[in-house]
Amino acid sequence: MKPKISLRQQGLVVFTALLAPLLLQTRPTGAGAQVTVLACALAVPVLWILLLPAGRGLAPDGPVLCRGAFAAALAVSVACQLYQAQRFYSDTTETELSLFWYTAVVAAAVLYGVHAGLGGITRTANVFLWACGGGAVLLLLSVLGHLRVSSLQVVASPQTQLWQALPARLLLVPEFLLPAWLAPTPRQGQRVTAAVLAGWAAVAAALAVLGEAVLGAGYADQSHPVYTVARLGGVSVFRRLDAVHVAIWMLLALLRLMLSTWALLRLLQGLLPTARSRWLLIPSGAALAVLLGTCTAQQMEWVCGDLLALALAAALLPKRRKTP
Fold first, then answer.
1. Please, what is the angle between helix 186-215 and helix 7-23, to 10°?
2. I need a labelling partner for 245 at 20 to 30 A (CA). Which of 88, 89, 171, 211 fits?
């Protein structure tokens, strides 16, 4: 039985969790603000159409292959999140993160998410979203002196660069399917998914415009574009506010990790209801361990995308018939 959380709250917690991959980008964006804004506008209807069958496929009576592929994608996504958060922290603070303390913090967050459930995660998301909003206002105020409208680049043929504006790693995240899975009906899930996609695209476009207005043409080549902008900001005598932003963004990363882990465990409870079926976790865990040991982070992100594509394809399969 799914927790009784309002549709608005469900959309809010998913949207808050999806802010993490936007803020913790660790590779060059490869496109300017103009192209990114156009790509965001295009991504919302395209992704929404692709996710339409998810509500029916992820229902308890939907195809097992769909729910299994979604669970596998979440498992790979959790591993990618652990790597992304550790790399972002090490790169931005220029210090190696202690494995012991990193493991302790992650374990505490996961245990809290599992114990508190979606209700507790939603309350945490509300607090983190307010903190993120305050951080966004602080970031904007701190870089006002660096904003230059003339720094925005104009591309003659932006349509030729749309494919690189939104890297696949930002689109192929399993959390986009969570509203469809959590909602009581597919139609309600479609509405929440559309709202989450629109909000996510608006934030992605706003970050691109802010980054290019501050950094100019060099924005597209930054490995940590949002953090680079944050480093330039200062308010009054406070000249290094980037540590505040990093702390808030790491909290968002932990929130996404809590949500993904909670959803993964709930999916496994439905897929593996008996003690005998849970033995399947051993070969599944071994396969994930092999994946972690042999694949790079980028390769794992593509594996996650392939699993999501499999889940969406399986969602088109007919539902199983109930036996009389």
1. 30
2. 171
In whole angstroms, give the CA distance from residue 19 to residue 226.
12
For residue 123, give the nearest of 136, 113, 132 by alpha carbon.
113
Task: Give the Cα separation of 303 and 12 in Å (integer).
Answer: 27
Query: In 3D, which of 205, 183, 167, 206 has the Cα closest to residue 51?
Result: 183
Block residue for tokens 């998410």: 113
Give the model's pLDDT for residue 271. 86
Q: 141, 245 in Cβ contact below 8 A?
A: no
pTM, entire model: 0.89
> At residue 94, what is the residue type?
E
pLDDT at 319: 65
Query: Can you tell me the distance from the alpha carbon of 241 to that of 20, in angstroms, rounded to the nearest whole number?
Result: 18
CB 43 within 8 A of CB 166: yes
Q: What is the CA radius of gyration of the chain?
A: 20
- Indicate the residue type of 66: C
All residue ranges of the chain with pLDDT < 50 are 1, 323-324
Distance CA 121, CA 110 (A): 10
Task: Tally the residues of the chain.
Answer: 324
In sequence order, which residues have a C-beta less than 8 Å from that of residue 297 and are 6 or more positions away? 80, 83, 84, 87
Give the CB-side neighbour count of residue 121, counting CA atoms within 13 A: 31
pLDDT the model gives residue 1: 44
Please report the DSSP string for 68-136 in residue order. Answer: HHHHHHHHHHHHHHHHHHHHHHHHHH-SPPPHHHHHHHHHHHHHHHHHHHHHHHHHHHHHHHHHHHHHH
